[in-house]
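Minutes, project check-in
Item: structure for the 146-residue chain
Input as provided by the requester:
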Amino acid sequence: MTLVLDANVAAAACAEADGFAELRDVDLVAPPLLWSEFFSFVHEARFRADLTEDQADRLLNTLEASPLRSQAPAELHRTAWRIADQLGLARTYDAEYVALAQILGCRLVTLDLRLRRGAHELGFVITPTELIAAREAGREHDPEST
């Protein structure tokens, strides 16, 4: 299974000691934009003294060591443009995550509830809570999981 993660989910996973452990059997991908967003978020938090230098460094190291891989299909930006129009987004940043999931035919996992609600009609944008529930439901019906 492949999942696209957005920067909020990656940040939450990096903040936990075993944040990516639950997804070790999943191919985790994101558009290249995630790394810029993540580094910017961590830098801003350190700049505002919400994080110490050590905490910021730990988050950056965790992301760099994570199983998350960058994917940039040739049609990513044009698809993001079209999706931004479809979802009524002024900017294409969030649409890049949606576009990558659409291109790859997989789900996007986001903590951005505004994006989740706006992309509901697409049927493949979910929250981590929804992902966990779906995985647990799948295990209940999987005879090998008992």
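Outcome recorded: Helices lie at 7-15, 33-47, 53-65, 76-87, 93-104, 113-118, 128-140.
No further action items on this chain.
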